Sequence to fold (780 residues):
Amino acid sequence: MGKKKGPKYDQIIEAAVKVIAENGYHHAQVSKIAKEAGVADGTIYLYFKNKEDILISLFEEKMGRFVDKIQEQIEGNLTPKEKLFILIEMHFKQLAANRALAIVTQLELRQSNAELRLRINEVLKKYLDLIDTVLSEGKESGYFSENLDFRLARQMIFGTLDEVVTNWVMKDCKYDLVSLAKPMHELLLDGICSR
Amino acid sequence: MGKKKGPKYDQIIEAAVKVIAENGYHHAQVSKIAKEAGVADGTIYLYFKNKEDILISLFEEKMGRFVDKIQEQIEGNLTPKEKLFILIEMHFKQLAANRALAIVTQLELRQSNAELRLRINEVLKKYLDLIDTVLSEGKESGYFSENLDFRLARQMIFGTLDEVVTNWVMKDCKYDLVSLAKPMHELLLDGICSR
Amino acid sequence: MGKKKGPKYDQIIEAAVKVIAENGYHHAQVSKIAKEAGVADGTIYLYFKNKEDILISLFEEKMGRFVDKIQEQIEGNLTPKEKLFILIEMHFKQLAANRALAIVTQLELRQSNAELRLRINEVLKKYLDLIDTVLSEGKESGYFSENLDFRLARQMIFGTLDEVVTNWVMKDCKYDLVSLAKPMHELLLDGICSR
Amino acid sequence: MGKKKGPKYDQIIEAAVKVIAENGYHHAQVSKIAKEAGVADGTIYLYFKNKEDILISLFEEKMGRFVDKIQEQIEGNLTPKEKLFILIEMHFKQLAANRALAIVTQLELRQSNAELRLRINEVLKKYLDLIDTVLSEGKESGYFSENLDFRLARQMIFGTLDEVVTNWVMKDCKYDLVSLAKPMHELLLDGICSR
DNA sequence: TATGAATGAGGATTCATTCAT
DNA sequence: CATGAATGAATCCTCATTCAT
Fold:
């Protein structure tokens, strides 16, 4: 089995997102994904090693593009604060624009077993590194605190992003997610204390 | 089925935590839990309606006590900042003291189905309300920003706590979690900006 | 374990009839019967060897009395035709008067396994012998055909009685069973042919 | 699940008859039926919705054919008496020729739950209608009594057939069933009275 | 006698994966 | 490349029965 061939590969990925979003992780059988993709069950195994491989590939493909788009936007002459804002806003924008994907990444894929989630975290590494880069630039340029613990700050930023999106998905996406970018940005920059 | 009586009820809960932590959610068979608890399979069903009920009860018991202990500690004459610190520290302390429980709450129980997670969220509500109370006191006393968006701030605090603990668990608990309370407290209070 | 002691023995039998009639054979758990009888589960086993023994005893008690009553009525100076009529009418009358028992004997007890039904048939033997006696008297006295095959005639009589009552029970006992005694009597005596 | 195709469908039905006849209804596990049919357990579920569906299908297939064959034989220029005889004889002949089926229909399938028996009764309706047709013809042509109550007569005929076959099965099929057709026919036509 | 908490054997069903065509 | 019929491992729960009190 090679890797990433033909249009069927993408068909299957898209079908998986749709089927999982609509049926939930535990009711997303391979046969359902195959039917949605318009291929036979067996065909799945010409493009993916097993079911887990579909999910990992899905995450790699989608999150890969997700991070790439954010990275593109924060390249160039911007202050670290601006970069952080764009990162947050892009994060929200992309998930708001693809709710099926949001459901899959925020809720359904978390039901996967510990091993799969480990693999997923590897994919997330690229994103976390991107956050680290912004933090590093901010620290060096003096915008951000010189004592900043990167790991902790990154966990705060990512944990908050994640929690905010998850809450939005669990509330059926019925409020505007993107408009939360500005207050969240301010909160992360200045904390909750008055000054 | 009676309700939560006898020592067997607790034995089964403890056994469930241990078995799930060791084997993972999906390999935690009822028979394994029964054996670990030193009772017959059927005995489980004298104390719990079904397997899901064990998990919900486990979470309710453990998280209920978890939140209660935090609540006890932050009652009294303390500033909101001190209360937030104690909340963070107690959160870390309790999970650091019971790593099996940490594994179960941070990793394994998230694999549960939608219905179970709904029930879990109800339990979490009490915790989130507790955070809100601290935030509210801080706002009123002028310690915290007067523009503070409770929901957002709560999501930042909880999201960060959760992410920090999850990372610690996924790194096999091999660094000291509790010592992160202080820097995290400062980060939440003052943000990442220098001043 | 002795046999037939105390009032509890009868309580349990009556409880079994009620529970089986109301819940069906497969949902008539021993614990349900015990609760209905107002005794502990374990007490059942002081009066009956096992669950099957309850059912057999139930049938023996109830059918024994059932047949005895019919027997009493057909003793005396009656023609075989009259005796057959009384047998049919008493059969219908008794079941019409105790619908719970009718449900149990016609529907629920038939779901028991082959072995139990064998035992039940032994109980029925007395009834079948009674029919044979009537047939025998009829043959000797010349009222009934001299070529009469007892076994066949008995199977016709019993099979018809049984089928008629079963149909009545399955139609929720919503028509008058006893009034069928007369036409059925005539049909058995003269057959379906015109003459 | 498709509908009744391929040789496997029939294999499974035949296996079910055999396994139920040999082991009894309650010990006829799906895995036993699968092994007897020479297929995997899971294959059963490509042809049947669940275990109950096997039993219903079994009864529909077998009884459907059973009734069809009788119907074929009594079409044509025959008197109602002759038709009744053929019906009885065919009933006996078919069950005598397939003793496993006789055991299943007379003993084992009656242990099924209320819902299944309801479905079974629907299948029997066709047979009862066939009996009614013969009775109706007999009444119109003057062969049968003009006062004949169809329902009662039908219950007598079916009840007797059923009782005779059940007795034969319970006596381990050790006497000739088919030769009972003639005396039974006469008994039903003329009753037990001498004339 | 009476209790009732505890026992533990037993079975239908799903679905990821294979392989003959 | 593509198909889809066939595979078979794996597990929760019920309930008749026991026995220490």
In short: Chain C has a mean pLDDT of 94. Residues 114-140 of chain C form the longest helix (27 residues). The CA atoms of residues 76 and 83 of chain C lie 9 Å apart. Chain C touches chain D through 47 residues (CB under 8 Å).
